[in-house]
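Sample entry follows:

:::
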Amino acid sequence: MGFFYAWLAATLLSGIPSTLYALATGGDPLQATRAAAAMFPLSGSLFVDAALVHGSVSLFWAAILWRTLPRRHTAAWAIAAAALIGIVDLLLIAPRFFPEVAALDFWPQMAGHFMWGACFGLVLRFRRQKKSGPGPDFSP
């Protein structure tokens, strides 16, 4: 269950930085939602398509990190991994395959990746500690 809660928190909260940035600068807070929905327009509904794409991409990366993140310093490693994922997503994949995503401002989207990593890593760490019992987790 730790994986599910970590994925859910990361998926639901990672859009906060770009949305706040758009609101603070007078931009369109739905621009990133439209870009996500444009990646694979399956249903014709903006929010359904964006949720399916964002949830699926998040699930892909979460599954990889869940299997590879160390138990020590989980949150820090998750944030570092999310930064690398952000570079891959935003600078390598998006310009080649998803122009709507590539057209978004880089730093608000990168902040979303950092938020994703922080949420995923913190929740996963908390759930792992809860499972292993009270006290610090000194397992390798």
